[in-house]
Amino acid sequence: MRRVDQNMARSAAGLLPQVEGEHAKELRTRFRHLPVQLHSSGLASTYVFLASRAASASSPHLRRAYTEVAQRIRTHLAEGHLIDAELGTAPAPGVHRAMLEALAGMDSVSYARATREIAVLFSWLRRLADAVYPPDRGIS
């Protein structure tokens, strides 16, 4: 049996696209802030942020990255039976309203569990983004 953090590390590694320059800088910045955003704003608000960025990011690479993180959240919560299984595989953007309704309908224990598990994913995304998208040391 694999631990949640091992599965999340594997998932996070698969969510980091090959990008360079400003796109890498933006992803590193956003992925580094996801744990803080989750803690301060909550899971529903953070999910909406990701869905919004998936629709409006400046490049296809960034849109895909945000889309895949939102999809991974839905898939993980569906696999853990915290949301309806259909939401785990439903395509965006139509799924976002249903996802928010599912999050809003959770009891407090389920919402706390979902938040904690997604926090592990975000923690891995932050660590891996720092490793994969190193800052440009030449810029002050």
Account of the protein in words:
76% of the residues lie in helices and 0% in strands. Helix 2 (21-41) runs antiparallel to helix 7 and helix 3 (43-56) runs antiparallel to helix 6. It is globular, with a radius of gyration of 15 Å. The protein has helices at 4-14, 21-41, 43-56, 60-79, 85-89, 95-104, 108-132. 32% of the residues are buried. The protein has 140 residues and is mostly helical.
Lay out the secondary structure:
Blueprint: H1 4-14, H2 21-41, H3 43-56, H4 60-79, H5 85-89, H6 95-104, H7 108-132
Quick recap of the structure?
The chain is mostly helical. The chain is built from seven helices and no strands.
* Structural class by SSE content: mainly alpha
Radius of gyration: 15 Å
Uncertain runs are none
Distance between the termini: 46 Å
pLDDT average, as an integer?
Answer: 83
Kindly estimate the percentage of residues that lie in beta strands according to DSSP.
under 5%
Basic shape: globular
